Amino acid sequence: MEGLIQTRGILSLPAKPIGARRLLQPSHGLKQRLFTTNLPALSLSSNGHKKFQAFQSIPHGISVSHKERSRGFICKAEAAAAGDGNVFDGGDTAAISVSSKIFGVEVTTLKKIVPLGLMFFCILFNYTILRDTKDVLVVTAKGSSAEIIPFLKTWVNLPMAIGFMLLYTKLSNVLSKKALFYTVIVPFIVYFGAFGFVMYPLSNLIHPEALADKLLATLGPRFMGPLAIMRIWSFCLFYVMAELWGSVVVSVLFWGFANQITTVDEAKKFYPLFGLGANVALIFSGRTVKYFSNMRKNLGPGVDGWAVSLKAMMSIVVGMGLAICFLYWWVNRYVPLPTRSKKKKVKPQMGTMESLKFLVSSPYIRDLATLVVAYGISINLVEVTWKSKLKAQFPSPNEYSAFMGDFSTCTGIATFTMMLLSQYVFKKYGWGVAAKITPTVLLLTGVAFFSLILFGGPFAPLVAKLGMTPLLAAVYVGALQNIFSKSAKYSLFDPCKEMAYIPLDEDTKVKGKAAIDVVCNPLGKSGGALIQQFMILTFGSLANSTPYLGIILLGIVTAWLAAAKSLEGQFNTLMSEEELEKEMERASSVKIPVVSQEDAPPGESTSQLSEKSTSTGI
């Protein structure tokens, strides 16, 4: 074999090569690197053959035929065989084989991560403003109260979410991913701009106040909640659109796009960090909400301060929305997509009902849906009880909105801190432990909140020494509970949920995300609202039903933990299968050198040479 290398080089061709020519043609990427880099001169001096010059950079404007490049590639292989096998000497090797890095991260990866972080920043900046504004609109409006919220979530938000999911499923079958993204996000941007500058200033003209008053007098005060939906329908539509922004833009559009352009290794490293910039947005958006809340108090008499601040905040929302569209365009324009395993199961085009049946029949999707629904019900059971205390403590819209601005800022700081710790959790303990932290945190903090409400009497003297009333103490403890629960959700629960989509095939990924994120999220919130409505009707008030709500919370979190454990095993199995498929694809791409029978040394056949080449790793 050594003699063969010295006399003929690694590759020897028959007189009339047929299939070998295709085998020896280098890939486009390799040819580009070979013919655009200055390399040191190499020669071949053994056995009296001519010396071959090493490849030099080709001047711009001079063309090289395909045949000449192929011949050069063969000469390169012979030069490597004659020498040490190291064609690229010294620093040239590192320059060619190692891509550029900044802070230890490849530039190509940074071109994905930085725009995605900015997109998430803009999306959550908007969501914080919308979330803090929607409650003020519907709760403080004339003829409305906090009782409208359970009806909105159950009878308005959920049907619209289901309708959107059906429409999104249809559009995903006929539109490209880029067209689908713009088709979904642009109506949100247009609506929020129109609401601040057109619909709210005309609210006195478009709201049926007289009809609602007449129906309320006929039906009685117990129907105030449902009638308020009709009375302030434009505010209710804003409430639903703000809720859908969180479900659609955050969960479906952003995370779907992130899953499309990142690999699993990149996701494990950077998904928890995506939220760092986003939670800086929470801090700044919380300050923004508080600033405009305080500005309303400083305006002159006769000026609708809320209308002025609403126009300013909706202008910010529109600007951030346009920035999101620009970042999406830039990434699609300049960032290459990663290669996926080609052996995924190809799913046929399915109608809406077929898609729903397929998703329901998948244990993997069912477990994911359980996680999302359980979170929605659990946080709603605690959050609505806390908001009832918050409304009692801060009845003024200005005070209520200012407190929510502080709440958002504290949530951003806590989440930022947990984001820094989440990467360590994923690296040290893996997906399964990370997925179980959020339900555990929610359970522990929920128990503390309900305990203070149920057994507040013994704590009254201590609370008085701290300068607080029992009501204010409950508000602060509930705020801490919501801050820790939401920070655990943003830093651990959301990345875990999105990582679980990556090993799925494309059809399940697209339609599964639409069904889970758009339907199951509102279903969880509406489920919590239905439970609370039933408890109020059964026990007379929300306060009387508090012990039973605590028991229900315990049962739901237990089911949540069980689903997370089941999903952990399925996720690990799918990831192992994907890694095996990639290894098989890499193995199948290895090509065996071709040696003609006439060029073989005496006494050795072609098959014997192939076996020797394989055994020596050539």
TrEMBL record:
An annotated GO cellular component: chloroplast membrane
Membrane-protein topology: Multi-pass membrane protein
Biased composition (Polar residues): 604-618
InterPro entries, A to Z: ADP_ATP_car_bac_type
Keyword line: ATP-binding, Chloroplast, Membrane, Nucleotide-binding, Plastid, Transmembrane, Transmembrane helix, Transport
Listed transmembrane segments: 113-130, 150-168, 180-200, 232-258, 270-292, 312-335, 356-382, 402-421, 433-456, 462-484, 534-563
Pfam families reported in the protein's UniProt record: TLC (PF03219)
Superkingdom per UniProt: Eukaryota
Annotated stretches, region: Disordered: 582-618
Localization per record: Membrane; Plastid, Chloroplast membrane
GO molecular function ontology, one term from the record: ATP:ADP antiporter activity
Family from the record: Belongs to the ADP/ATP translocase tlc family.
Protein name: ADP,ATP carrier protein
Annotated organism of origin: Arabidopsis suecica (Swedish thale-cress)
Lineage, uppermost ranks: Eukaryota, Viridiplantae, Streptophyta, Embryophyta, Tracheophyta
